[in-house]
Write a structure and sequence with these properties.
Mean pLDDT of chain A: 95
Largest sheet of chain A: 6 strands, mixed
Number of domains of chain A: 2
Strand order of the largest sheet of chain A: 1-2-6-3-7-17
CATH architecture of the largest domain in chain A: 3-Layer(aba) Sandwich
Largest interface: A-B, 100 and 101 residues
Oligomer: homodimer
Number of helices of chain A: 14
Distance between the termini of chain A: 26 Å
CATH topology of the largest domain in chain A: Aminopeptidase
Number of strands of chain A: 18
Helix content of chain A: 25-40%
Structural class of chain A: alpha+beta
Radius of gyration of chain A: 23 Å
Chain lengths: ~450, ~450
């Protein structure tokens, strides 16, 4: 039986198995889901055991890493597949049309937290591997490293990598955790932004106060936090942190023009999001703003009374989670330091400020002349019948920069999601077309990569 | 037996009864405490029944009103006592040293939500009345109107008042819901600020988005809300809403100088609150800032991911609760309209804004030459041995302005709390000294008021 026939005949089974994995609420950011995260790891491990593949679960200080490998011949090239089985928190739950961890298939899409990011995409790799094994068609060596902390910064994975460089030796890293332009327009992500993520706490009085008795006399930490956050960007949408742009690469006009050739319809973009106008840094197009420019977003803010009704309190504290997306050459650690220094400097003396760094990661760019890129392009051309377009994405997969640094390996970002998959949002979904098309394309990748190498 | 002897002999009983009332979590702002609010009303009603006093519970569209009256002789003056048995929400619960609704007596203070605001103070009136009845010493007619919605704007009380002007006819209204300067320095509040309270919602995209994929392209409602809030006040701490100050009375230099004679130690004020510097409108002292100037405070803010860890979300919505304290001549309704109009005008076109008004109330000033003020001053002089100082407080008791408007009656704000009682905050407390001194002083008030009238 050919690999493609096997895939065709097992579509139902492949779907049922993915739904089972999606039922496990493996939210890595929230400790109350710790056991579920482990269950997801055990689920992945069992997949390889069923195929008779060597597989281990590596314990870390956080969530475990599943590692499997199948060496058919040391002389053949080796593909290291990376992915993650952890997911983003699912709240706000009330905005989901169906419960985030009770997957449903509707309009040819799977709706569940993690459907596209990244359970659905990592599972394509496991099924593509199964198809190749069951049909004796695996053309090269494969290694799988599937972690449970991607959504919280992959700290323990980076430790694991530094300790296992030998074991992880390979010719290329293959990752499916990105999206294509559309189901008619395949694309491969060649650029990713880095990330610096901090949590700030602004403290005014040592206790909550009555806003009548003290309002107008004692500095309000919420008003103050708002002023401080507002001052981090100017009218042009530029970030005002001294030194923030110092290392941002200035790309030639031609490069930017080429980027802007990628199909993009601003009107449908605005309609899809329900906004009257887009908003970003002056002097750049929407594609450039996410592809080659850094940015700053408040991801969460809280303070004072947020319950029902009206409470006249002048609170003691206000908090915010703030993240900055970075571009190549900006150092996550350095930007976090610049932010911290600046944020403390702009704090008025009626408040005290604390800045706590969360995870970060470096931006990266993948060369389009690498063997891995060529193999991915050929594989997509074979399934789609057209050349994929190289794109730069606004998101971050910090681990990609780490792979380049620690293992000196390129990562090929052959993702199959769509921008409308609503990853990190309520009603995340993943298309059945994308799921099956991905499995098929991945099997071709192994073939082409072995030939090119 | 004299009234004072009765009070002296029943201190233990008076305390136990108050603690029982404080155990009822009568939080009017939160519907899940609806039944407890009613229990508190029933508790108050039972007090009057035990004394054989005519008492009724009036149902409203919200929480009930307890009304009692004792007419000994229509020719004698009548004192209408007003107070409230509802309390502010107790959260954040984790900051309480002992549970808010399990009162404890420590260091000569009662710790519980509502101890000072207003259960402890309203209960002084019931016990002063009891002492006068039990010793056949009530010198005039009394009426009691005790409501359960003061902390949420007294809307239904204002309806009740408009419908019962006849029943409520009196010569003066007596209220204990304010504080004195210190236990050594008695004072009477002659000025209160008004209040305008709104809740705002800023909506960006129609769903939460991945801050990597969309950050820098789609306007972030939290960043935007922060900019909008920051713009509501300028560097001088002045409110920038057009027309906001139009009706604010400009008080003569002499009046301000006289205000500033009230004892106030900025250093101990800052030490008590744990702040390095106070913060307020330029050109005014701390006493002036709360007494005669309006202000704007964010009482609560929320949006995006506020849980554990780091979630890279660009949220769909951000919210804030914002209140403005007003001074005489500013209309709460008009200020709410000015705020709403301005807030919508400053909203950039990448967001949609909704403004929902909560309760409000007018500021008020009480003349020091009124019979009620004189009686209160004499009563305090009798128990303290020194003249009380007239002060203006920053808080709001909107009902006072309503009493002036609907019943053309002055309200005498003879409160016995202290600023450090931490009302509206965790660990609210009320001193035993203040509780017993209040009961005693109130009995004198009736005597002096009857003589002066």
């Amino acid at each position: 039986m050919t690999t493609l026939t096997y895939i065709e005949e097992n579509k139902g089974k492949f779907l049922d198995e993915l739904l089972a994995l999606l039922r496990i609420p493996s939210v890595s950011a929230d400790s109350k889901f710790k056991d579920d995260v482990r269950s997801a790891a055990e689920f992945i491990k069992a997949q390889f055991e069923d195929l008779g593949t060597e597989v281990e679960i590596f314990e870390t200080e956080g969530h475990p890493i599943v590692y499997a490998e199948h060496i058919i011949d040391p002389m053949l090239p080796t593909v290291l597949v990376y992915g993650h089985y952890d997911v983003q928190p699912a709240d706000p739950y009330e905005l989901w049309d169906s419960p985030p961890f009770e997957p449903v298939v509707k309009d040819e899409k799977i709706f569940a937290r993690g459907a596209a990011d990244d359970k659905g995409q990592v599972y394509m790799h496991i099924k593509a591997y199964e198809a190749l094994i069951k049909t004796d068609s695996l053309p090269c060596n494969v290694k799988f490293m599937i972690e449970g902390e991607e959504e919280v910064g992959s700290h323990n994975l980076s430790v694991f990598i530094k300790q296992n460089k030998e074991k992880l030796s390979a010719d290329v890293i293959l990752i499916s955790d990105t999206h294509i332009i559309s189901n008619d327009t395949p694309s491969i992500t060649v650029g990713l932004r880095g990330l610096s993520y901090v949590e700030v706490e602004v403290t005014g009085p040592n206790r909550d106060l009555h806003s009548g008795t003290f309002g107008g006399v004692v500095g309000n930490p919420i008003n103050t936090l708002c002023r401080m956050i507002a001052s981090l960007q100017n009218e042009k949408g530029e970030i005002t942190i001294p030194g923030f742009y110092d290392k941002v690469e200035v790309l030639p006009r031609e490069y930017r023009d080429q980027m802007n050739l990628a199909p993009f319809d601003l009107e449908s973009f605005k309609n899809d999001l329900g906004i009257d106008s887009e908003k970003g840094e002056e002097g750049y197009t929407t594609i450039e703003r996410t592809g080659i420019r850094p940015t700053l977003d408040v991801n969460g803010i809280w303070g004072g009374y947020t319950g029902e009704g009206a409470k006249t309190v002048l609170p003691s504290k206000a908090h915010a989670k703030i993240s900055m997306r970075l571009v190549p050459n900006q150092s996550s650690e350095e930007i976090t330091e610049l932010f911290t220094k600046h944020f403390k400097e702009i704090a008025p003396n009626h408040v005290k400020v604390r800045v706590r760094p969360h995870h970060g990661g470096e931006a990266s760019v993948i060369p389009t002349d690498a063997a891995g890129y060529k193999a991915a392009a050929k594989a997509m051309k074979k399934t789609w019948g057209k050349e994929p377009i190289p794109t730069r994405e606004g998101g971050s997969i910090p681990i990609v920069a780490l792979f380049q640094k620690e293992l000196s390996l390129d990562s090929i970002l052959m993702g199959f999601g769509l921008q409308e998959d609503a990853i990190h949002s309520p009603n995340e979904s993943y298309g059945l077309f994308n799921y099956y098309r991905g499995i098929e394309t991945i099997t071709h990748f192994y073939q082409f990569f072995t030939e090119i190498k």
